[in-house]
Amino acid sequence: MTDESSIYTKLGKDYQEHQSVNHSANEYVRGDAHTNTIEGFFSIFKRGFKGIYQHCGENHLHRYLAEFDFRYNNRIKLGVDDTMRMNAAIKQAEGKRLTYRRIKRTD
Fold this sequence. Notes:
single chain, mainly alpha
C-alpha cells in the first residue's frame, strides 16, 4: 500500500496486490488501503536514527532497519513495555554469537 506517487507503479507489479491512496486529493484511507503503518514505522526510524546513530552506511542499512522493525513491533502501543521488549531481545540473541568483521573500504 502506497500513496499515489508514480515511483511506486513499477514496484507494485512485483506484488500480488498493490493499492494506493491519493493524498493530494485528501484521500488517506480507502477500505483497507492506507499508508499509516509505513508512516508510523518511518516516524520511529527517523526519530531514533537522528537521536541515536546520526549516520548509516548503505552496507549496514538492513541491520538498522531490522532493529527499528523490532522496536516498531514491540512498542508500548501494542502493550509491550520496556521489560518485555528487553526480554524479547535477549531471547532472540540466545545461542547466537555476535561478531563484527571490518568491511574493507573501496574509496
